[in-house]
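#help-structures
NK: newbie question, is this the right format to request a structure? protein is Cbb3-type cytochrome c oxidase subunit
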Amino acid sequence: MHKPVNNDVPNADAHNEVDKATGYTTTGHEWDGIKELNRPLPRWWLWIFYATQVWALAYIVLYPSLPLPGGAPTGLLNWNSRAEVAREIDTATAARADTLQKIASLPLQEIVADDTLRNAAFRGGASAFKVNCVQCHGADAAGSTGYANLNDDDWLWGGTLDEIYTSIRHGIRFDGDDDTHISEMPAFGGILNSTEIDAVAQYVLAMHRGDADAVSPQGAELYANNCAACHGGSGEGERSMGAPRLNDAVWLYGGTAQMVKAQIRNPKHGVMPAWGGRLSDTVVKELAVYVHGLGGGEMGD
């Protein structure tokens, strides 16, 4: 049923036509022969529109909303998002209090032996890792040049739960923790000449390829006299000293000939903070469980 034309409507003047099909006047706008009808909005739409305006006014009165030179008014409810977040954190902390207390008090081996505690610690460690560790080790813990990959089974200081915990808690070469891991490789640029450094580098590269016997005897002799005491006779490394394996394909500072020679000539020594002075022991445990569970963790004795 079409709405009849009301000739008393102000816009129904001579300028407007009447659409014969609908009985409505037109607005005078036309595009490609299509004329716009002057139809009022549906009442249900108008009521919803008015309701949104009432809602907006109520929101302005009840909640902080309008930015003013002196700051936004707090609203009659005195609500703010920071207080809401604080309440949610308190609620979550209270819900996890029993689990966190167990993680804090139990040894790492007992934590991972309990499925509930292990899963809770792993999730907590994942969160702590994203906040504290991704800057160096990457979001996927794969590391980069100079930063260790935590997904593999190549560990400088050991990959058991306790060893990982110790590394996280006390750091690596961190000035400020008496129990930090310390190792220092001499700068052989002041001990060996360029020809000798090149021979050692070629021998090291040959070890990881498995054809060290094909390299000149000079490289093997220089390695035995200068490097084997820390890295082992066959390049197997020594974890108690933080000396890396040299007979695999994992390189902390790069595995090209130039990079190996640079490390022999003037070695880089990475530093990791002692997180025990920054994070609670519970969080350090959670990080140890998380890193251990990434795929390269080793079983203890």
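mod (FA): yep, format's fine, and the tokens are attached above. DSSP finds eleven helices and two strands in the chain.
NK: thank you!
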